[in-house]
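// run 5 | inverse folding | seed 20
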């Protein structure tokens, strides 16, 4: 196989089976039937009570650029042997559908559509893999960041993960997702350049080792950098590192801004308390203590419980790799398809597990917000022609355990999706990443604390309207009858 094809498009960033299905649809002449797909996940990651949606901006760029480049076409034809007639069709294919999506920074939950794609079947099918790839990673990291930030609270937070990320794309899109999830800054300079997000950093042990003398290394750093954070644990934190940092800070006085010190090994609780005492005694009560070293939300919580004196946290590996749960598991399901007569018909995917049965039909999602206390009562999935806002009172019930129910009155129903692509044209301007972060923070205010705690949070309701639930049951019944008929004929 040749391997000198230009890497000049993302259109082949798909699974082979999507192209094979596309070929069958095209050969049978059903490729342009209208199809509706929904993208959603079935289980929240990390045992968290909510997720933070991220990935839309890259999806929009991908859809805008969606076409088979000359090298894509050459590869499909020369190496994979697709026939000329299908190849000729692919040459002119672009994305002409419409997309509805929640905004980046939106809080989202299991079993509700994050994106809805309304497009010719072939187009909606070909984009599945890329959309899932983007949303699954970015949403996972934004959620992990938000979860860690819930523990960090108002102390500083910096993303340090680039060296440990699963390759370069993950590093930069992960940095961006970390900011959306609530982090203050990233150490990745390219992410800063591409996404206009704050970059920050200290220095490494290598600098102290290179000078072979801690005092000289700190002094040298201070000569060229106004803001100084000295890494104090290369030799001996309390006997050498902290005293040398204090010495340089005293000597250079107003010539530098002595921001503080960083601890990167040893017993962080003990060392931070001792370092705090030493800095305070030397008069540097404003100097900050920054810590790093394989941190995650559990270690941070534990360090706080031990009374660690930390002002700012640098977090790499366990954030950028979503260490304790490396995949989100969002899926992309066909919910409605045009039939031969040109009418839309709902479709369903059945499994033995009730929670995994897809919900058919063109639907909308509303967040039901209690007007009295400003808190979210839950999310409410309705058929496209329903509008809960015109109802005085809605009954919200669990879609599987239907006896769990409540009536809600005096509410605002916020529609969760925005139309972002209209007949192939991107019509949505993404806000800045910083605005996405603010949006996520504001939305967290809508949630009761019970949904936000890191351990065993309450399950946030994601319910179906009666009409939506009835439609699902009707579809299940239809499939049952169909399977029964097939069995009878065997
Ligand atoms: N007081 C503490 N309580 C709980 N966990 C801590 C405490 N201090 C440090 N840790 C965490 O313990 C883990 C292991 O630290 P460890 O002692 O192996 O690192 P180290 O050997 O000091 O440093 P390194 O191996 O990076 O040079 C790290 O995740 C660190 O964040
Ligand atoms: O620990 P993380 O959360 O991944 O944060 C990033 C780590 O990267 C640097 O370490 P370095 O690459 O020098 O390795 P080491 O500290 O493990 O020796 C830094 O000192 C942090 O410890
Ligand atoms: O700036 C830092 O201190 C930093 C950056 C990346 C990884 N570890 C630390």
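// decoded
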């Amino acid at each position: 196989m040749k391997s000198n094809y230009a890497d000049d498009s993302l259109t082949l960033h798909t699974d082979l089976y999507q192209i094979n299905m596309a070929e069958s649809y095209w050969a049978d002449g059903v490729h342009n039937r209208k199809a509706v797909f929904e993208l959603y996940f079935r289980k929240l990651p990390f045992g968290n009570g909510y997720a933070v949606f991220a990935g839309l901006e890259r999806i929009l760029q991908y859809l805008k650029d969606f076409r088979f480049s000359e090298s894509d076409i050459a590869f499909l034809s020369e190496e994979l042997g697709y026939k000329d007639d299908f190849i000729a069709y692919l040459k002119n294919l672009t994305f002409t559908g419409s997309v509805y999506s929640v905004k980046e920074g939106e809080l989202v939950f299991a079993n509700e559509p994050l994106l809805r794609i309304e497009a010719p079947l072939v187009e909606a099918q070909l984009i599945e893999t890329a959309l899932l790839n983007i949303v699954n990673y970015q949403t996972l990291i934004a959620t992990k960041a938000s979860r860690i930030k819930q523990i960090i609270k108002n102390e500083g937070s910096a993303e340090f993960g680039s060296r440990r990320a699963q390759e370069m794309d993950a590093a930069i899109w992960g940095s961006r997702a970390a900011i959306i999830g609530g982090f203050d800054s990233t150490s990745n300079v390219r992410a800063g350049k591409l996404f206009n997000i704050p970059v920050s950093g200290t220095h490494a042990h290598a600098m102290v080792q290179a000078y072979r003398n801690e005092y000289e290394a700190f002094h040298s750093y201070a000569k060229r950098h106004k803001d100084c954070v000295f890494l104090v644990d290369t030799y001996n934190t309390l006997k050498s590192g902290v005293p040398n940092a204090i010495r340089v800070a005293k000597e250079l006085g107003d010539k530098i801004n002595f921001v503080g010190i960083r601890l990167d090994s040893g017993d962080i609780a003990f060392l931070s308390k001792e370092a705090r005492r030493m800095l305070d005694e030397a008069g540097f009560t404003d100097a900050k203590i920054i810590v790093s070293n394989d941190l995650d939300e559990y270690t941070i919580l534990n360090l706080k419980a031990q009374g660690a004196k930390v002002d700012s946290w640098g977090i790499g590996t366990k954030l950028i790799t979503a260490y304790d749960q490396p995949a989100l598991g969002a899926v992309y399901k066909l919910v409605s398809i045009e039939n031969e007569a040109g009418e839309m018909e709902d479709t369903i995917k059945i499994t033995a597990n009730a929670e995994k049965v897809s919900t058919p039909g063109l639907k909308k999602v509303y967040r039901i917000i209690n007007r009295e206390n400003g808190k979210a009562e839950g999310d409410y999935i309705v058929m496209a022609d329903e509008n809960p806002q015109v109802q005085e009172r809605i009954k919200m019930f669990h879609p599987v355990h239907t006896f769990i129910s409540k009536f809600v009155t005096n509410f605002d129903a916020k529609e969760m999706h925005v139309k972002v692509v209209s007949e192939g044209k991107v019509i949505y301007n993404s806000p800045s990443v910083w605005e996405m972060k603010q949006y996520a923070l504001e939305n967290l205010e809508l949630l009761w604390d019970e949904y936000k705690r890191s351990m065993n949070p309450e399950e946030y309701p994601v319910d179906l309207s009666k009409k939506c639930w009835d439609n699902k049951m009707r579809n299940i019944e239809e499939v049952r009858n169909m399977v029964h008929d097939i069995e009878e004929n065997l």
